[in-house]
Amino acid sequence: QNQRADRHLTMSQEVIDEMVSNVAADPELPPQLRKSMTQRAVKFQVQLLAENPDDPHTLKQTGAAYKRLVLLLYDLSEFDLAEVVADEAIAILEPFPDDPALDNLKEQIVNQKIAVLRALRRVEDAQQLAEAREAEEASSLLVEARRTFELGMVKMSAGDLPTARTEFDKALLMYEQIGFDTHLTHEIARC
Known about the structure:
The protein has 191 residues and is mainly alpha-helical. The chain has helices spanning 2-25, 31-51, 56-75, 79-93, 100-119, 123-157, 161-177, 183-190. α6 packs antiparallel against α7 (161-177).
């Protein structure tokens, strides 16, 4: 019975998502109707998320609803409200750093917020947010490079030299991508 309820919840979310996507994207409809329907969808998703805080599907649907609302508010030139909504969305998605789909969604919303800040002529704030995003991406890449290097060390210890070399090459590319030029990088290249 729980599985059936979960399926019905997912189906309901998908139907609402599709309807609101169509409404939000339809320039023929009055802007206030588009805004109202999109805001209702966000409110609905937030309520579902409150009831199902550990459900990744609900979290993704909520993030996607917020993303649509930020975009719509931007299109309607309601930049102050778009900034507030973007901040809410980022706050909801922030506690879930290890999900690539959510990371991608959060990155899209951050990009939207940067555009909103520029539209508000807050160029310095937009630049700071862009730099913070780049630093976060570099930090994530650094963690991945370390993991890849460690995997190479494990493979080398196990005698699997071809796989170790492949992992070291991947790590080297990641280190170079973030501008990490140290003795460790050169040691990887010499392996």
